[in-house]
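User: ok so my PI wants both of these folded by tonight, can you help

Assistant: No problem, let's get them done. Here's the first:
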Amino acid sequence: MLPEGRLDFGAAAGFHAQLEAVLAGAGKAPAAVLIDCTALDYVSSAGLRIFLQAARAAQRAGTSFALCALQPAVREVFELSGFNRIITVHAERAAALARGVPGALSQQRRMSVSSHATHLPALTRFLQEFWSAAALPPPEALAFELALEEVFMNVVMHGSALATPQVEVSLVLNDADLTMTVEDDGPQFDPLLLPAPDVSSRLEERRVGGNGVFLVRKLMDSVGYQRVGARNQLTMTKHIPR
């Protein structure tokens, strides 16, 4: 598709109808949809809403969805709204076609922050945006929100006293399995070696702390740690029922 001119409130309905027709195909959803924005000069929130609705519809139908060749003004709107993090955007049409127009929504997203506790809300929003864009069941997000908080705060608390580690969080959705990987360049630390709390102990015997990693291991289907070069890498995977 090749939208032209302005994608504002007045043009949104017509463009939405075109997208719906393309996604419906001849009774069968296409394998991929690429929107070439070379001639698109302007997009407002109404246009963004259409892109989001179309990308979600494509994700539900198993159709790859991507945009390419965003002009500077349109690119700025995408970056300010965060849409460049939830919808695949390629710099050029040739690059999109060369890569086979990979996954539309949230197949893989990354975010990097320094290990300060003040960055936890931003990471949580990153996860929530991913979740919403991928149309995953809201109740299932809580396990990943808890795991993200526990693992990130472990890095914050166990980071080097000489330097602030950088933390990268990646999310990969593969069919119904979601994998969250947290990497940092701090001192080697395997949280999975921490002893599990004795959940049967009495109040006066119960050890303070140690519950975070225990909860992560219980909530996830699998959790693994490895040291990759100079980085800690903790990978957590869980099946998300639809």
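One down. Here's the second:
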Amino acid sequence: MTNQVTNIARKRGRPPGPNNRAGDGKNQSLIRALTLLERLSETPTGLNLTDLSYQLGMPAATVHRLLSTFEELDFVEQDAEQGLWFVGLKAFTVGNAFLNRRDLVSSARPHMHALVEQCGETVNLGVIDNGEVVFISQVESQEVMRMIARLGSRSPIHASGVGKALLANMPEQRVATILQQRGLARYTDHTIDNLTQLREELEQVRKLGYALDDEEHAVGLRCVAAAIFDENGQALAAISLSGPKARIVDKRLSEFGNAVRQTADEITQALGGYRPA
């Protein structure tokens, strides 16, 4: 049986409606529509009209009207028998345009496959979006017990290998802004929730060239990650090697870390980028 780790931080209680997210002068209908689409994208098992209305804080009639419009445009689709709504093909096509903006995924995948072959663990590719890690590609390990992250799922930036690898290579002001907005939520007993300790950890990441998530987001899971850089020497993305702590043991951390950093550097070179001194 596959050991699946979910990387979505679930909000508890009733989420704020879209009106709470929009300032004066913004198109409320557009914000409602995109908020609905975003919520569906976070729920691969689908949502019914009642749940969508409740979670979004919108009247059911409004939600149904938006769904009907999206359905006509193929942005959503419905399982009429179960009454569930899902993200449609057009939404995938539009969202995939982000990946087409540069050749990051296609350039990275051969190197990710090679790293899985070398180390035997799952390899993920992640970027930063709105202060969170978003996984955009994955090559799975063949082990029975392995880490699986749904593409598009999110992880806290301070409690993930990818997040710390990217934080360590960001300008200090951007780091401060992200941490102020996102905070340092505690997910396990190993999560770093102290700003001073996190900054010390980021300094260590810069020295080693790779970051470690040591059961900080999920108990029993370790990730080793390194940043990928663009043509300006700025951190563009990061790859991580993830698996159970029983296999990513202390005596192999340096070996795995160096392998991940080397792979990240190979992807950087394939993109025409460079790792800054």
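The CA atoms of residues 69 and 75 lie 9 Å apart. DSSP finds nine helices and eight strands in the chain. Good luck tonight!
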